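Data availability (excerpt). The following record was deposited with the supplementary files.
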Amino acid sequence: MFLSVICNTTASGGSATVRAVLQDSADGVNFTDVIAGAVFPVASVIVGAVLLQIPFPTRLRRFTQVVYRVGVAPLTAGRFDAFVSVEVQRNIARASGFSVL
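Predicted structure:
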């Protein structure tokens, strides 16, 4: 199983940075970081950008969550999907409205 965190709406925010972090918790209240992805400048966080894609860790505590850490400046736009899948997600986002000849 794999954890994927992918941008689905282009982010904006000047000089902001964003990072995806997987956390776990025994009680669902007090979470600790398990894995932190790379720090991305907002200019590179476009539709289809992969913020984190890893084999899902074993031996996690009962509760898990993905949080997004924004640094340097506020993030003013952007949406992200975080999901677990059986295989690595390899779909490539393409612009709509193309023709096949």
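Summary of structural features: Strands lie at 2-12, 17-25, 32-36, 40-41, 50-55, 63-71, 77-85.
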